[in-house]
Write a structure and sequence with these properties.
This protein has 224 residues and is mainly α. Helices cover 77% and strands 0% of the residues. It has helices spanning 3-17, 24-31, 35-39, 45-63, 72-89, 91-99, 101-105, 111-127, 132-158, 161-176, 184-189, 193-196, 200-222. Helix 5 (72-89) packs across helix 6 (91-99), helix 5 packs antiparallel against helix 13 and helix 9 runs antiparallel to helix 13. The longest helix is centred in the middle third of the chain and has 27 residues, at 132-158. The chain starts with a helix and ends with a helix.
């Protein structure tokens, strides 16, 4: 058993069962070895998490496409669509940064990677006319939107199929009995699919709304 084999087992455990399921005993069962064997490579769980976070952060940031010199709206859409793809590909990164973000970010092997990319992205937004503070807020808004969207997508995918069908039937039945006087707009929809659909179209629409708002900020800054 090697350090890399332990990291790969930890990765698989978090990917399938979530960060809360990761413990040294659970990991020892995953690699079919004693807990003391794992402690030979990692002194504690935090040390293991740091190594895992360094691995997935380097992977995601290497493939996440940065903004280029094209029109700002085009570059924002391209970059954060790429971010969505990477979070979907590496759910362990999403899990770590969602539940242990400050701990992960503070690590010496991660902080420079994240800061270098963040500074580059903010510089691009500032060059487009945003103040540094507005640029930071805009970037956080896009990042949080993508993280939240992918988290919901992942949650929906992990729901048991047989329960999903029962839930859909229950919602459809409830929608069919809505009082049009009390719920005039919802009854126009017919069902809740437009409110619950998580797909490429709904992702693009949400991102477009954010990008449009950022463009407005940029335009205002440029006229002052």
């Amino acid at each position: 058993m090697s350090r890399e084999e332990i990291l790969e087992a930890a990765y698989q455990l978090v990917e399938h069962d979530g960060l809360s399921a990761l413990s040294m005993p659970a990991l020892s069962r995953q690699v079919d070895a004693g807990v003391t064997s794992i402690y030979w490579y990692f002194r504690n769980k935090d040390e293991l998490l740091v190594a895992l976070a360094e691995r997935v952060t380097a992977d995601v940031y290497r493939r996440w496409k940065p903004m280029g010199d094209g029109p700002l709206d085009t570059e924002l859409r391209m970059s954060f669509t790429s971010f969505r793809a990477e979070l979907s590909r590496v759910p362990v990164y999403l899990e770590l940064f969602s539940l242990r973000s400050r701990f992960v970010l503070a690590q010496a092997g991660i902080f420079p990677i994240v800061m270098e990319r963040l500074d580059t992205d903010l510089a691009r937004l500032v060059a487009a006319g945003l103040s540094a503070v507005d640029a930071a807020h805009a970037h956080v808004a896009c990042s949080a939107y993508v993280r939240g969207f992918v988290t919901l997508e992942r949650g929906f995918r992990l729901e048991p199929g047989e329960q999903d069908e029962a839930v859909r039937a229950g919602i459809a039945d409830a929608m069919g009995h809505l009082d049009a006087t009390a719920f005039p707009v919802l009854t126009l929809l017919g069902d809740l699919e437009p409110m619950t659909a998580l797909n490429d179209d709904t992702f693009r629409m949400g991102l477009d709304l954010l990008v449009g708002g950022i463009g407005t900020l940029s335009g205002k800054r440029g006229t002052t």
